[in-house]
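Annex B. Sample input.
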Amino acid sequence: MTTQARRLPEAAPVPVVRARRSLGARLTEGLSGGLVRVFLILVGLFWLVPTIGLLLSSLRSPSDMSASGWWTVFSKPSQLTVESYQKLLENGDITNSLLNTVLITVPATVLVVVIGSLAGYAFAWMEFPGRDWWFLGVVGLLVVPVQVALIPIAELFGRIGLFGTVFGVILFHTGFGLPFAVFLLRNFFAEIPRELLEAARLDGAGELRLFARVVLPLGGPAIASLGIFQFLWVWNDMLVALVFTKSGTQPITVALQTQVRQFGNNIDVLAPGAFISMVIPLAVFFAFQRQFVSGVMAGAVK
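Annex B, continued. Sample output.
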């Protein structure tokens, strides 16, 4: 006797109910593609217009600059010339000020990065009396404006013979850059896993070796971001340099301002000088752009 298997009734298909998205969600999804990228590229090009205009102006003669705008270069490329840059190299005040800018900016940036890294590590992972109070004091220095300290420090530098020297300007920028450096790096170093540091100590690493082999590689993005911030701030500074420098030690910002005051129509020197003063920080930023973005994103996540 054979038995016939009973066939089970097939289940009815379950209708799929799709949630109705809002108009804002649909617009956001539609704009997240190529249209937004094109818009961002246009915004970037718009922000580069002053830089491009200054570059083209520096490559034109003074007569052409006084006769028409820089955009006429596209219809008359014969206007382009390097005579302005030749005159700039022959101007001793500008070339000497550019050298002074490098002599001020590089040491002030290196000192802030090195001292800030060491202090940030000490405040994050080393135990010493009054550590938290000292750190609160450093944080409190962030609210002290530069303008308040100009006259007292200028008088102090005058008494000890540092007023009007490059070394005095370096000390001022280093002193006012350290509070932010210590605050930034201490908070970044404090997020390093404790287990990683303890494992290195068990392997016999001292504090200096631990700092050089473990902390510095992990803190590279934050240190690069700090270095870029400090470099741009010191390079573009005019207030401190105007107060603490004199003839022979002035950076490029003060030298260009002096050229405007003495020679109001000296545009053939001012245009290339201003472009060089602006393009060097841009080159530094683009050279370390990846480290800068990594440091900012890491700080945002933490």
